[in-house]
Amino acid sequence: MQRRPVDLRERIIVALDFERPELAREMVLRCESKVGFYKVGLELFMADWFHTVDWLIARGHRVMLDLKFFDIPETVKRAVHRVNDRGVSLFTVHGDRSIIEAAVAARGDMKVLAVTVLTSFSDDDLRDYGFAGTTAELVRRRADMAIALGCDGIVSSGREAEMVRQRHGGTPLIVTPGIRMISPSEAAVDDQKRVMTPARAIAAGADHLVVGRPITRAPDPLSVICGMQKDLEAALDRDHEGSN
C-alpha cells in the first residue's frame, strides 16, 4: 500500500473536546511528551476562540481545526481567510462541491479536508435523510469529488479508508475519527457507529487517527497513547513487510 511518511508523534491527533480551555490545556500538558498533534473542534473553539489554537502552536504542536465549514461559498472563503496565517495545519469543510471549491481557493498554506460521512451515521441514518445507498457509497462519491476538486484529503471512518486509498493511492490525506480500542461487536460504542481499532484503521490506510474519549477520559491518558502507538508501529511494520 502506498503510504506517506508520518512521524509517530503525529499519527494520533488528540481531540480536545472540552467545554473549558483550562481542561484542554491540562490534557495537552499530560500528553505532549508523546503526541504533537491536537484537534480543536466546535465546542472548545466557541468557548475560547483562537486562544488555545495559538497556545498549541506556540508550544510547537500541530493543530487540526475541525469546524466543518458549511455555508454559502463566499462566506466559507472569507472564513478560511480568517484562519490563514495562524499556523493551523488542517481544517475541515463539509463535502459539498461549492464549499470545497471555495475552501480550496482560499486555503493558503493550510491543508483542507472534506468531511465525507460523519462516523455517527449508519446506513439506516442515511436512509432517514433520503439517501438510498450505503455510507460506503456516499463516502466514495464525496471522496472522489473532493480529491478531484483539489482537496488535500478527506475525513472518513476506518471502514472506508482502504477503499479510498485503493482508488487514490498515497497522495490524499486520510484522517480517521471513530477510534475505539475494541470492535463494535465487543461492546456498545456510545454515539459512534462506524468505529475501528487504531491498528486496523492504520492498516486500512489512514494517515492520522483522531482520538478523543479513549484518551481524554482515561485515568492515565499517556499510558493509553503509548499502547496505541505500540499497536500502530506493529501495524506499520506488517504493512511494510507485506509491500516488500
UniProtKB/TrEMBL annotation:
Domain of life: Bacteria
EC code: 4.1.1.23
Domain Orotidine 5'-phosphate decarboxylase: 11-228
InterPro entries documented for this protein: Aldolase_TIM, OMPdecase, OMPdecase_AS, OMPdecase_bac, OMPdeCOase_dom, RibuloseP-bd_barrel
Pathway: Pyrimidine metabolism; UMP biosynthesis via de novo pathway; UMP from orotate: step 2/2
Catalytic reaction equation(s): orotidine 5'-phosphate + H(+) = UMP + CO2
PROSITE patterns associated with the record: OMPDECASE
UniProt family annotation: Belongs to the OMP decarboxylase family. Type 1 subfamily.
HAMAP family: OMPdecase_type1_B (MF_01200_B)
The protein's name in its UniProt record: Orotidine 5'-phosphate decarboxylase
Species name: Desulfofustis limnaeus
